Amino acid sequence: MGVGTGTRTERDWTLYGFQTYYALLNCGFPLQPSAGTANGVHPVPLGFNRVYVHLDGPFSHDAWMRGLAAGRSFVTTGPMLLATVDRQDPGATLPPSPDPRGHRIEGTVFSEQPLESLEMVVNGEIVQRFEPQNRPTPEGARSTALDAFFLPETSSWLALRCIEQRPGGRLRFAHTAPWHFPVAGKPLTARRQEADWLVRRVEEEIRRSQGMAPEDLLTQYRKALAIYQRIAANAR
Hints:
The chain is α+β, with helices and mostly antiparallel strands. It contains 4 helices and 11 strands. Among the domains are: 79-181, Sandwich (Immunoglobulin-like); 192-233. It has helices at residues 10-26, 61-70, 192-209, 215-233; strands at 50-53, 73-76, 80-85, 103-111, 115-122, 125-130, 135-136, 142-150, 156-165, 171-176, 179-181. Strands 1, 2, 5, 6, 9, 10 and 11 form a 7-stranded antiparallel β-sheet that branches. A hairpin with a 5-residue loop joins strand 7 and strand 8. The relative contact order is 0.15.
């Protein structure tokens, strides 16, 4: 995984969370990002971590939940990362593009402080970095526009992420849910390093929980371990 335990710094913790999410996506779990404050556990204010969902019509609880389940969303601790691919919100599964340049990615990031980075992530790897423009807005914020293309060679998922600089070496981030690009005959295959890491993590949790956790919880851990072991056996 390459990010250690993720417990040394705020940046380590953020990247550790990203890489864990990427490993699960690459192993075939179609998980959508969400957010929770953890106020009272972490030293953050209530509502600090948020998930925003794109709606096609009027707001309602059911419409919001459907949008969240479909992945039409982004999570953030500050920046507003608004983007589409071929004018489709995150969560979309897109057919091959007729444009020889590939699928068109458009968006804008609004941030209170200057952006440090804006990146395109494909199948867990950073494939393109964009220079933040940090143009002043009338409201006193910063904006960065994005216009790029993506041409998948194999079945892929794509997400965008950004990091905002903050005083005192702190950071804020935003991360979209993934778009999906199936390519016939070229499926997305789990990476051995990631699958093996997930196996080790569940094995460690089983050892840690022996004698403390109820047996039905340990049974669930063992079922998860068997699933990850099957994935690892076919990983590349």
